[in-house]
Write a structure and sequence with these properties.
Distance between the termini of chain B: 22 Å
Number of helices of chain B: 3
CATH superfamily of chain B: Hotdog Thioesterase
Number of helices of chain A: 3
Oligomer: heterotrimer
Chains: A mainly beta (about 160), B alpha+beta (about 150), C alpha+beta (about 140)
CATH topology of chain A: Thiol Ester Dehydrase, Chain A
Helix content of chain A: 10-25%
CATH class of chain B: Alpha Beta
Helix content of chain B: 10-25%
CATH class of chain A: Alpha Beta
Strand order of the largest sheet of chain B: 1-3-4-5-2
Order of helices and strands of chain B: EHHHEEEE
Largest sheet of chain B: 5 strands, antiparallel
């Protein structure tokens, strides 16, 4: 039951376990669709010639968009799209409820269409809090994105989900 | 796109011009397409989880609100600035067809690592003015002197 | 499916059926994949305001299902030359859509072995909603 839940040593042991890498693709089509999805009409997200005239490699990914993970049936979650990978932290959370807790992105370069990124994630934080409907487990995963061509880290993103 | 903002142009306490958007189903479906999050919570009014959560309407993706805060911060940075970091927490739900407003205020100006940095409190608020998605950001701005 | 060869089929044969049933999520996935965000496929209020009973399946999605029906049948060694259908009747989400095809012609021409088919989607009551035709080539054992 939600109220008897405690963070176990087995869960704490998942810190520092890196997932297998996954490829995220940033394409002109995907950048434009994301920009349309957020209601932006900034031409730097749509018009390649314009973006280049402003000094960018190609159209710029809207903030928060770090590419779309390669989708392989059976390997990715069919609703959310994230890859279910070999290895990586395994938490076995008994709660059914799942809500988005928070998102933080840190940039080391500008992400543009044409970039192919390699992402790997690890468990960054676990917090148990009391909520109106019982205990809530806050799980934060940090994803590190490297440019596949150069090997350089271009962005990091922390995603917090609330299980209850 | 507006004119470039320079480090010398901004001051602490300055509020950014807000960005407003009222997401209808079409917008949320486009966001699903762009983000890859096809959770029916955001577009299917008959989805059982809505009832289980006590909701009468579909809700806006948290990441959609994050993206609105992103648009605000991107506009401040301009094409010559660079957003270093921005993050939010999802504290409340926003409903379909209700206005979402992204806002921000500059809390600090500083120099670090050779860059001119501006720190901000950012948020999105729902149609009732409640700040459902509070957070912070750091932006590097170009200087007029460089 | 094992690879089908020209010699295996004859006029009148029905090809293996493909059953589809679109959830509302499937319709949104199609909107994403096709770029057709017309609201009659996911916004019930909008659909009803245009005079429809409720959400309907995109015609182009049914066309794509027929494409899948043919693609699955012809196998790696077959080639799809041409196919098309008319959107005569509406299909709705959460209801079976049966994709079917029947061979109408089979002939050799210029080194290729052609097969022509009638293809269509039909509702659970048997009503044909998207009648069409297709032309494929199949490998030959000769």
């Amino acid at each position: 039951m939600a109220d008897e839940f405690e963070i176990t040593d087995e869960m704490r042991a998942q810190f520092g376990v890196d997932s297998a890498p996954w490829t995220y693709e940033v394409t002109t089509t995907s950048v434009r669709m994301y920009a349309r999805g957020i209601g932006s009409d900034d031409p730097v997200h749509y018009d390649v010639d314009f973006a280049k005239s402003q000094g960018f490699r190609s159209i710029v990914a809207p903030l928060g968009y770090l590419g779309t993970p390669v989708f392989l049936p059976g390997k990715n979650d069919p609703t959310f799209g994230f890859p279910r990978r070999e290895g990586g932290p395994r938490l076995n959370i008994p709660f059914k409820g799942l809500l988005d807790g928070g998102t933080e992105t840190e940039y080391f370069d500008v992400i543009c269409a044409g970039d192919v990124l390699e992402e790997s994630s690890h468990l960054a934080d676990l917090k148990l809090r009391d909520g109106p409907r019982g205990k809530m487990l806050f799980v934060t995963n940090e994803s590190v994105y490297k440019d596949k061509a150069t090997g350089k880290v271009v962005a990091k993103q922390k995603l917090t989900s609330i299980h209850m | 796109m507006a004119d470039q903002t320079y480090f010398e142009d901004v001051k602490e306490g300055q509020e950014l011009p807000p960005i407003k958007i009222t997401p209808d189903k079409s917008q949320l479906v486009k966001f699903a397409a762009g983000s890859g999050d096809f959770n029916p919570l955001h577009f299917d009014e008959k989805f059982p989880m809505l009832k289980a959560m006590g909701l009468s309407e579909n809700i806006v993706h948290g990441r959609f609100k994050y993206a609105q805060a992103g648009r605000l911060v991107f506009a401040l940075a301009g094409y010559k600035g660079r957003v270093k970091k921005f993050g939010v927490n999802y504290r409340g739900m926003d409903l379909l067809n209700k206005e979402v407003t992204a806002g921000g205020v500059i809390t600090a100006k500083r120099q670090e690592g050779g860059e001119n940095l501006v720190d901000l409190d950012i948020w999105t608020q729902d149609a009732d003015g409640k700040k459902t998605t509070p957070g912070t950001a750091t932006v590097a701005l170009p200087s007029k002197n460089s | 499916m094992a690879q089908v060869y020209f010699e295996d089929i004859k006029v009148g044969d029905e090809i293996p059926q493909l059953k589809k049933n679109c959830s509302t999520q499937q319709l949104v996935l199609w909107a994403a994949g096709s770029g057709d965000f017309y609201q009659i496929h996911y916004d019930k209020d909008f659909a009803q305001n245009t005079g429809l009973k409720g959400l309907i399946v995109h015609g182009a999605l049914k066309n794509a299902f027929l494409g899948q029906l043919l693609h699955d049948w012809i196998g790696e060694k077959g080639q799809l030359r041409r196919f098309g259908c008319s959107y005569r009747g509406m299909d709705e989400p959460n209801q079976d859509i049966l994709c079917r095809g029947v061979v109408t012609k089979a002939y050799a021409d210029g080194g290729n072995h052609f097969v022509e088919l009638d293809v269509w989607t039909e509702k659970p009551d048997g009503k044909k909603t998207s009648p069409g035709t297709a032309v494929v080539t199949l490998p030959s054992r000769s």
